[in-house]
Amino acid sequence: MKIAILSQNPALYSTKRLKEAGEEQGHDVRIINYLRCYMNITSKKPTIVYGGKPLENVDAIIPRIGASKTFYGTAVVRQFELMDVFSPNESQAISRSRDKLRSMQILAREGVGLPVTGFAHATQDIDGLIDTVGGAPLVIKLLEGTQGIGVVLAETYQAAKSVIEAFRGLDANILVQEFIKEAGGADLRCFVLGDQVIAAMKRQGAQGEFRSNLHRGGNAQKIALSPEETDTAIRAAKAMGLKIAGVDLLRSNHGPVVMEVNSSPGLEGIEKATQIDVAGKIIGFIAKNAVEADNSNRIKY
């Protein structure tokens, strides 16, 4: 099978591991910088050109689209879809997951557990917005932030008001959420593949840090999920339409709540913490499902 990994950087751990795992399983694996592709959009024979040559006879792709390049990256994925190339994460699903507000609205519609959340842009009713999530302490997020950037814990009402006013001055879209104090600065990363959670780890924030991102000095360890946590992670990924997803949960007093559904979850932290060959499982899943794929059920544009 010919597999193309759509990634800007072949030196990234996740990209390297997927290539290694694919070759170990006997597949022809190529890393494609999707930003260097251009597309011939035609109804007769849609093509993607890379390095001056059409990309032909590709059986499956693995999108590893950077958050800041979502628009162009999903356009390339969509072009592969027009060419009937299998992708475990389709363009529409990636776009859903990258829009934090849209993803939370979808999850709420499906009845998936979420922190109490408010959304605003230029509201003058800051008091009402704060009251929506039960007052301080609360978490304030820039809608476009990633990896914990643009996320602030406001421990008092006055601090929350000041941060919201500052973000409003940036002409930014703002999410406010209840602070799940009982989580203790930890979250659960659940790696969903198809309709199963194949690996899970608990990420603990550094001392004095409420964000648990490994990029911000957090640490991780393997963990066993409860049936409710497993079900929540699978339902969240399914609601987004993702076959490969990293679902981040918090343990709250009212059950597991979803913080984020990631369409390009990193492999380094989860593989090292759990000692599970996640990359190999992904390749096996793609090899099986690319053959059985029924594109007639593909989400329409």
List the keywords.
301 residues, alpha+beta, Dna Ligase, domain 1, 5-stranded antiparallel β-sheet, 4-stranded antiparallel β-sheet, 9 helices
Describe it.
This protein is an alpha+beta fold. It folds into 3 domains: 2-96, Rossmann fold (3-Layer(aba) Sandwich); 117-179, Dna Ligase, domain 1, CATH 3.30.1490.20; 182-286, ATP-grasp fold, B domain (D-amino Acid Aminotransferase, Chain A, domain 1, 2-Layer Sandwich). 33% of the residues lie in helices and 26% in strands. The chain contains 9 helices and 15 strands. Helix 1 crosses helix 9 (278-292) and helix 2 packs antiparallel against helix 3. The mean pLDDT is 89.
> Briefly, what CATH class of the largest domain?
Alpha Beta
Let me know the average pLDDT: 89
Q: Nearest-angstrom radius of gyration?
A: 20 Å
CATH superfamily of the largest domain: ATP-grasp fold, B domain
Helix content: 25-40%
Strand order of the largest sheet: 13-12-11-14-15
Distance linking N and C termini:
27 Å
- Total strands: the figure is 15
Shape: globular
Number of domains: 3
What is the CATH topology assignment of the largest domain? D-amino Acid Aminotransferase, Chain A, domain 1
Would you summarize the structure shown here?
The protein is α+β, with helices and mostly antiparallel strands and 301 residues long.
Question: How would the blueprint of this fold be written?
Answer:
Layout: E1 2-6, H1 13-24, E2 28-32, E3 38-40, E4 47-50, E5 53-54, E6 60-63, H2 70-82, H3 91-98, H4 100-109, E7 117-120, H5 126-132, E8 138-142, E9 151-154, H6 157-169, E10 174-178, E11 186-193, E12 196-204, E13 219-222, H7 227-240, E14 244-252, E15 255-262, H8 268-274, H9 278-292
Helix pairs in contact: 1-9, 2-3
